[in-house]
Design brief:
Helix 4 packs across helix 5 and helix 6 packs parallel to helix 7. It is globular, with a radius of gyration of 21 Å. The strands form four sheets. A seven-stranded mixed sheet has the order 5-6-7-8-13-10-9. It has a single domain, classed as Endonuclease/exonuclease/phosphatase (Deoxyribonuclease I, Chain A, 4-Layer Sandwich), CATH 3.60.10. The termini are far apart. By secondary structure, the chain is α+β, with helices and mostly antiparallel strands.
């Protein structure tokens, strides 16, 4: 057996390196193994300590519309008579693909198997989420739904799925961007959804967002996302004023990268943990991940990381210690699983989307999902 093993190694070493197509986006590293506890926790495991891992995920479901045209011209595209010929067959295949994706995101060390909380965007209504959680791949997890119909012209909203065994909802509020855009009272986009609850015995507020797009150009539209960032920061401050002893997790498709003004200035999310010194400061783990060439969507040969999960210093207070008596950040991951990637044409390595050029690809989404892992010692 050992001889065969070393012969195989020798053959692999002799293979020529594959040429890299300069037109293609930078190849993301192979999918990382499912989260493991930090090394200090693994060391402590040998001393019979027990830890639980909780996954918190975000996923842009890319136009999860039903087949009914109930929003006029904005909705007709996703109807049987529309340009995409969005019929029942395509709809249910899309639902299966979304459910399969979520079901494959296993969280090692979690009694929930998969993520306990999932923020979603680009969903038309509560009905499509009800259909999603009833899919065979997910129905045994009994995910519950928080949804709010917002004012977006296309009719897309954000929502929250949660496992009621591990997260108990206490309060739900929504925030609208217009207060932060006084010169544009008619502007319509997705509302921010804020859900406060109990996770692993601790009070945690989850904020789900889908910030305004880059329509018209990144710079020309930046003021819209900066307003969204100010709204998010004001919401965080308000939550902490009400109860400073809670953790806050902010997530969404931000249509900006971590280094853009909306994230690093308006929201104030820090690149490094060491910079999160003020109470209520926010850490953005995706900044350094994007710097490694790992993103959630690709455009013209470059990666962006719009799908971010940012959180307050509450989850960092035990980060450097061996003891994890409260929910503590472990790591962040772009869930760029192989089955989610396109392997053909000039989109090789990018997310395998539902449509491309008007052609139904029976893919998943034009965004990779993301996840953070929180660890806590079991008493």
């Amino acid at each position: 057996m050992k001889k065969l093993f070393y012969m195989a190694l020798a053959l692999v070493a002799c293979l020529p390196a594959l040429a890299q197509d300069p037109v293609l986006p930078p190849v993301q590293p192979a999918e990382e193994p499912v989260a493991q506890p930090p090394q200090e926790i693994q060391d402590e495991l040998s001393q019979e300590r027990r830890y639980t891992m909780y996954g918190v995920m975000f996923y842009n479901l890319e136009n999860l519309f039903d087949t009914i045209n109930n929003n006029g011209v904005y909705d007709k595209e996703f109807s049987p008579e529309g340009a995409r010929q969005w019929n029942g067959t395509k709809y249910w295949q899309k639902q299966h693909n979304m459910a399969y994706t979520i079901s494959q995101m296993e969280v090692k060390g979690s009694p929930a198997v998969g993520p306990v909380i999932i923020g979603v965007s680009e969903i038309e209504n509560i009905t499509v989420l009800q259909d999603l959680v009833r899919q065979p791949e997910l129905k045994d997890r009994h995910y519950q739904i928080v949804h709010h119909d917002g004012p977006d012209r296309r009719g897309v909203d954000v929502g929250l799925l949660y496992n009621p065994r591990f997260f108990k909802v206490l309060n739900v509020t929504t925030q609208r961007i217009n207060k932060y855009l006084p010169d544009y009272p008619e502007f319509r986009t997705r509302d921010q959804l804020t859900v406060t609850g109990m996770l692993a015995g601790e009070k945690v507020s989850i904020m789900v967002n889908h910030w305004p797009s880059r329509l018209g150009g990144e710079e020309a539209s930046s003021y819209l996302r900066e307003a969204a960032g100010r709204m998010a920061r004001a919401t965080i401050d308000s939550l902490l004023l009400d109860d400073p002893n809670q953790g806050i997790i902010f997530m969404g498709d931000l249509n900006d990268d971590p280094q853009n003004k909306s994230c690093c200035e308006a929201l104030g999310a820090k690149k490094e943990i060491k910079d999160c010194v003020e109470p209520g400061s926010c850490f953005n783990p995706w900044w350094n991940i994007l710097n490694k060439g790992i993103g959630t969507l690709g455009y013209k040969g470059n990666w962006n990381l719009f799908d971010q999960i940012i959180f307050t210093d509450y989850f960092l207070k035990n980060y450097d210690g061996k003891d994890k008596p409260t929910l503590t950040f472990s790591r962040a991951e772009v869930l760029n699983r192989k089955f989610l990637r396109s392997n053909e044409g000039d989109r090789q390595g990018y997310p395998l989307r539902t449509f491309s050029g008007g052609v139904f690809l029976n893919g998943y989404s034009d965004h990779f999902p993301t996840m953070i892992y929180l660890v806590k010692e079991v008493k």
